[in-house]
Specification:
Layout: H1 14-23, H2 29-38, H3 53-75, H4 80-104
Helix pairs in contact: 3-4
Length: 108
């Protein structure tokens, strides 16, 4: 797919914009305008990845726990060494999560 580098800016009144949004059959207005003006469906470069609901729930739980840890680190009077250890562990967890994501990127 050819890379889109050109930008077209248009001005419209609020009513005109609202009309365009109402007529749009796509979530993204630019995508709908390309299809309408160019006369052919515009294909996405790659399909959006899907994740199993179970994996998504587990990742959401992990994310919530990591947020709680980050808030605790920012709130308390931890030493620089303790904060460095926590950050090192969080980076390790992030790497593991990236590996898990790669292994499940083809789930449907």
């Amino acid at each position: 797919m050819e890379r889109r580098e050109r930008v077209i800016k248009i001005r419209c009144a609020d009513a005109e914009y609202d009309t365009l949004v109402e007529r749009s059959t796509k979530l993204r207005l630019a995508e709908w305008m390309r299809e309408t003006c160019l006369g052919a469906p515009v294909k996405r470069a790659a399909p959006l990845p899907t994740v199993s609901p179970e994996l998504q729930r587990q990742l959401a739980g992990i994310g919530n726990n990591l947020n709680q840890i980050a808030r605790a680190v920012n709130r308390s009077q931890w030493s620089s060494v303790d904060k460095s250890r926590v950050i090192t562990e969080l980076v390790s967890i992030e790497r593991h999560l990236a590996d898990i994501k790669k292994g499940h990127s083809n789930d449907c």
